[in-house]
Amino acid sequence: MPNIILSINAGSSSVKVSVFSYDSGSSDPKELAVIQVAGLTAPPATLKYDRGDQHIKNQELSESDVSSQETAYEYILKHLTSDEGLPELKHSDDIEFACHRVVHGGDYNKPVRIDRDTFHRLEELSDLAPLHNAGALTIVKAVHEKCPKASNIAFFDNAFHQTLPEAARTYAIDQKVAKRNKLRKYGFHGLSYAFITRAVASHLQKPTKNLNIVALHLGSGASACCIKGGESIDTSMGLTPLAGLPGATRSGSIDPSLIFHFTHDAGKPSRSSAKGMHITEAEEILNKKSGWQALTGTTDFGAISSKAEQGDAACKLAFDIFVDRVIDFVAAYYVKLGGKVDALVFAGGIGEKGAQLRQAIVEKVFCLGFALDDVANARPDGQKVVVDVGAQESKHRILICQTDEQAEMARQCAQEADSLRRPS
Ligand SMILES: Nc1ncnc2c1ncn2[C@@H]1O[C@H](COP(=O)(O)OP(=O)(O)O)[C@@H](O)[C@H]1O
Ligand SMILES: CC(=O)OP(=O)(O)O
Ligand SMILES: [Mg+2]
């Protein structure tokens, strides 16, 4: 009987779960189904369910159905185990591994089976990823309770950036305090960048160790990564996912002094943050009450893009801010690669579906040798994992990669299954 891997990606606005079967010894799990609850920050939440290459369901959910990452997971598990068309997963006991995307893993640099000690260490890190770790850990608890036979494995979103050079990961602050409090750049979206690196190297038929790309994961959270020889040498997110690019509800990088002029209570503990989390009013504002939501009233960048095109001033400003900040990183990372860039890669919900944003960004970096094929950019082939949308004659390629954090976790899990399996 093939073993079932459940790959769980608790994003800031969504819970995506992929079901895989795998035979120990093979490192290529087979994807059986993908299900996601999205719109948790912009109700009504929606459920999307695909099994194999069949699109099964798209429906709105009521707040009594789902209202958090935890209830979204419970709804998803019930949906999967009751689907007659998925005989491989009839009962939660069929799940051997539950892989969890844990955004902030601190100094953990490889996947780890979550036991009581690990769980508590990850809880302590929740303050450094206030939109993510707590939600993901509620799902770990739910799996522990509802799927007692499954091994919970944490895959860390910052592990891919363990190759950051010292000058890139060190802040210019008192290093005694920095070392004691572990204050440095960690970087995130690492599972996505690991998937992108492998997928793009295969598309370009290059060994990963020779691959130089500027990768953009533009989703509810957005980041850029400079990948040299297949390894991260810089990335836009920092100690926490707040740094770098603006997001659905996040400000992105600001002058740190701003917050003390924004509110005089900045240093006080936030009143409404999730229980057991000690973040300040300042972090609450910058993580949950800023970004596209604050600028336009919506976190839906698809809606923002089309309203910007129709002349909505607030949406046009948000759109232009995003372009302005993204090109700062594209230019800087182009220089860090010495101009030896195999491709500029767009990924994440916005990167993959936002033709208008891709066009606006590429126009600004035309001087570096990037140009789009406008027809390919307008209607990229959605069937392929990696699509080339660059103009034939341009110096560097421009690619769209349908990134897949769940597939990356399942692949790593299958590869390391023997060492990750709970001792019998
Ligand atoms: N056609 C589109 N153009 C621009 N943005 C889009 C489009 N379709 C979806 N998006 C945006 O993608 C974002 C979600 O990206 P995704 O990577 O799925 O988020 P998460 O970080 O929750 O995983 C949302 O802001 C959504 O509005
Ligand atoms: C790290 C991060 O921002 O993740 P997401 O895009 O899923 O919110
Ligand atoms: Mg995401």
Relative strand content: 15-25%
Which radius of gyration do the C-alpha atoms yield?
Answer: 21 Å
**Sequence stretches where pLDDT stays below 50 over 5 or more residues:** none
Question: What is the number of helical segments per DSSP (H or I, 4+ residues)?
Answer: 16
Structural class: alpha/beta
Could you spell the SSE succession in H and E letters?
EEEEEHEEHHEHHHEEEHHHHHEHHHEEHH
Write up this protein.
- With 424 residues, the chain is α/β, with parallel strands linked by helices.
- Helix content is 35%, strand content 20%.
- The strands form 2 sheets. It has an 8-stranded mixed sheet with strand order 5-4-3-2-1-6-8-7, with helices on both faces.
- A hairpin with a 7-residue loop joins β2 and β3.
- The longest helix is centred in the C-terminal third of the chain and has 24 residues, at 313-336.
- The two termini are 18 Å apart.
- Bound molecules: adenosine-5'-diphosphate (ADP), acetylphosphate (UVW) and magnesium ion.
- Adenosine-5'-diphosphate binds next to α10 and α12.
Short description:
The chain has helices spanning about 70-80, 115-125, 135-145, 165-170, 175-180, 190-205, 260, 280-290, 290-295, 300-310, 315-335, 350-355, 355-365, 375-380, 405-415, 415-420, and strands at about 5-10, 15-20, 30-40, 45-50, 55-60, 95-100, 110-115, 150-155, 215-220, 220-230, 230-235, 345, 385-390, 395-400. The chain has about 425 residues and is of the alpha/beta class.
